[in-house]
Structure formats: structure tokens, C-alpha cells
Amino acid sequence: MADQHIDAVELERGLRERARRIRRASLRMVHAARMGHPGGDLSSADILAVLYFHALRVDPARPKDPGRDRFVLSKGHASASLYATLAQAGFIPAGQLDSFMKPLSPLNGHPNRNEVPGVEANTGPLGHGLPVSVGMALAAKMDRADWRTFVLTGDGELQEGSNWEAIMSAAQFRLDNLTAIVDRNGLQQGNATESTMGLEPLPDRWRAFGWSVAEVDGHDVSELARTFDAVPFEAGRPSCVIARTHKGRGVSFIEDRVGWHHRVPTDEELAAALEELGGEVG
Predict the structure, then answer these.
(1) Which helix (H) or strand (E) is 86 found in, with range?
(2) Which residue segment(s) compose the domain that 228 sits in?
(3) Residue 189 vs residues 69, 93, 154: alpha-carbon distances, Å
(4) What is the domain-level CATH number for residue 76?
(5) pTM above 0.85, yes or no
(6) How many structural domains comprise the chain?
(7) Fewer CB within 10 Å: C terminus or N terminus of the chain?
């Protein structure tokens, strides 16, 4: 038991450090590019850290391995955090992050699977990533393959009808190799999600469509790791993880402020944010 406790403590410490570096790198990228979506980058950093450094069966040396797990960033506007994660994981050189959104850079504002190793689907227009992920999971079932598909959606994105068609289809085809993660930070461009188009009771809605659902603290890396270890939650049902998060997590003057959906930090704001996050980007 003592060794298990030490391992759990080390896992949490390591994942928190990964997430901290993702946050720092993504803020630097948005600042340098003068474009980006820092609020969503910061809210999803813990989820991405746990996926890539604990849950996903992927190998940066073999990014097209047929047996790999697939991850789709449906909220493609949070590309800076994804690229920062891929760099840490070894899929792309860390120095390439400096090219974010520059002319002819492969690191576009929305991920491109033809340009960036580790990117599984071109995303950006909201409502596309989950349907694509359903197709991936169905293909694995048809091939009797054991690889899994994980997809991260925004909560405002769930206002797109294509998602609910995909949610119905996943349950119909009993895709228990599919896990959808909702970055439930409660804010979207311009307003709160509940003021734009109410989503609650969100867990009950997913359950009504035939999914097995878990609600977690989306910034608790240990809870996220345990939850991803437990999928599928039920045989024959796709799994939904509703991750309760805060937009702009980790930086006090960004957190829970809707204006930071796509605002670029000034030089002074970047310095203050990096000081709050601590350490150096490795």
C-alpha cells in the first residue's frame, strides 16, 4: 500500500508539472502570434496532460501505428495547448512552437492532420470532431481492433446539432471504445453557455441518449487519471466524462472571464501570468 501511495503521489506531481508547462507554452505562443484562444487553452491543459502522459496508448516514434489510440481535439481553437502537449510528448520539436500561426507554419490556428504528427483530425468548425470520432470508433469495432478513441469537446460546442446526431449514433452502435470528454468551463465566445443555450442537466442529457456518464473535477489530475483508467464505464455503452473546469485556469486575471476567450495578453500580462504559473518552460 505504501508503494502504491508513493506512485500515486509521483503520478500527480508529474501530471501537474506537465499541465503547468502546457499552460506556460500556450500563453507564450498566443502572445507571440498575437492570435489564439487562451481561455480554452488553459481550461483544457490538465485534461491534455493526463491523456498524453497517462491514458493514451501512443508512441511519438510511430505516430501512424495502426494500433494506437486516437485523440481528437474537437474544440480545435484550443490548438496552442494541443501543440504544446505534442511537443512535450515528443511528436514535434519544441522549437517548432515558435512558428505558431506564422505564414506557412504547420502549426495553424486549427490542427491539421496532414501537417502535424499526432493530430488525428482536422478540426476548427465546431460540431465536427465528435462525429469524426464516432466514425473512428466504429471502424475499430468493424476491424475487431482494440484501439480506443478519445475526443475533447467544448461545452458551447454542444449547441451544434451534429454532435447530438453523433451521440445517438454512438449509443446505437454500442461504441464502448469511445470516450467523449466535455470541457465544461461554462463560458463560450461572448457569454455564459447557460445564457446562450442552456445545457443543464447535461449529465442527464447524455444518459438519456444511451451513454454512461462520469462527472469529475477537470483540474484534478489524479481524478482524471482514475476516470480514464475506468473506461469503458459500462460494456456496450460509450463513455462521457463531463470535466468541470474554469476557463483560464491557473491565471487569476484570466480565470472565469469570458473576454479571454480569444484575447491576446500584453507583454505585462504575459509576464504576470508566467509568474503566477511559476518555473520555466522545459
Answers:
(1) helix 79-89
(2) 2-277
(3) 31, 31, 11
(4) 3.40.50.970
(5) yes
(6) 1
(7) N
